[in-house]
Design a protein that fits this description.
The chain is of the alpha+beta class. The chain has 2 helices and 6 strands.
């Protein structure tokens, strides 16, 4: 039996080339494919109006990069493995997304000196 993939953090909105998560009170956008070029995936954190719901948030192209900022907690872009058929290895993808979301959660859950 092959590995199955399971992301620890649940997305709150999903589209054809993105997922939006809610982590430590922040919306996190993971974009892949053409929208993420030249990387396989990019990670952005919403720094705009906090009253948006997940469904109301503008996507990266609609926002123009004004409020979606590259992940300030660390990893802002990553590549993932492909399986033997040349398709995305979703297990590898989920492990990387989980690690990045954990990093974001720690970053925003702990007070930082720059916020004092």
């Amino acid at each position: 039996m092959g590995k199955t993939w399971n992301i620890k953090h649940s997305w709150v909105r999903q589209g054809g080339d993105y997922e939006i998560y809610r982590v430590a009170g922040k919306f996190v956008l993971v974009v892949w494919g053409y929208a993420a070029q030249p990387d396989d995936c990019t990670v952005h954190v919403w720094q705009g109006e906090p009253t948006y719901t997940a469904e109301e948030l503008p996507l990266l192209a609609e926002d123009g990069g004004t409020h979606w900022v590259k992940n300030p907690a660390g990893c802002a872009a990553f590549s993932f493995a492909v399986d033997e058929d040349g398709n995305p290895d979703w297990f590898d993808y989920s492990e990387k997304v989980d690690a990045i979301l954990d990093e974001i959660e720690a970053y925003y859950s702990n007070p930082r000196p720059d916020e004092a």
